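Recap from last week: sequence in, structure out.
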Amino acid sequence: MDLNKKQEGEREDRKTHLKQLREALGMTQLEFATALGISISPVANCEQGKSELMLSAGSIRKLQSYYRFLLLLRLITLY
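Predicted structure tokens:
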């Protein structure tokens, strides 16, 4: 596979995952950005595939917490 196509596919995956996470949390882009402690433009640009989302260590920990929260919700609904 061509390296550029692989990178493009990975970027598509990241933007899709970010948007899916945000929507699963029931948040707007503004609410999600505020929760992560960043402005709305990086979130919007990432979701549109215009740029990568660059986060501080604190924002990454918050993002991990949201993923864990959704995982727990899914596990709870299975039982």
